[in-house]
Amino acid sequence: MTAFSTEGQSDPTVQPVPTAVVRQVDAADTTLSNPKMAVIALGSNLGNRLETLQGAVDALEDTPGLKVKAVSPVYETEPWGVEADSQAAYFNAVILVKTTLPPASLLERGHAVEEAFDRVREERWAPRTIDVDIVSYADVLSDDPVLTLPHPRAHERAFVLAPWHDMDPEAQLPGAGPVAELLAGVGRDGVLPRPDLELRLPE
Known about the structure:
Elements: H1 19-28, E1 36-44, H2 49-61, E2 66-71, E3 75-77, E4 90-99, H3 103-116, E5 131-137, H4 158-167, E6 172-173, E7 177-178, H5 179-186, E8 191-193
Helix pairs in contact: 4-5
């Protein structure tokens, strides 16, 4: 007795997706075949700050659809928005990533990394083990309150601009202009380069 074979036959219940629909879906999510460059700021002022920053870099590198392309020098900075000496100083850095993730998914991944390092969001300006902020995503300008792009206060924060400028002297903040000019405008008060500390670029 010969077994019935379906080889070479198509399943009549499976209909091919029309080419026009495929094109429409691809156009809606251009990141599928068109990776974007994004800038992410990292900060920590609790626990082993350098180790935590490196852990965040490594965790982001382990994200499917994301590759860390550059890491900035580490800066030590005074906490923002609180009384002097009321908190430990921050270690700050900026990284450049190439990603196929859309902005919302990149934000979710950033929050997941924060949670992995026990970030607590109880009050504004509170000390934190790790802060992962999307500074910019390609040339996207968005006033979405969930994820405003670029970061609405990046242009006035030396602890973002200084390491970013060190990493990429020609960098531009979308809608605001050259990072070098923005940094010159805000100055470097309260931000101290730490050449004795270094973040590794994941291999």
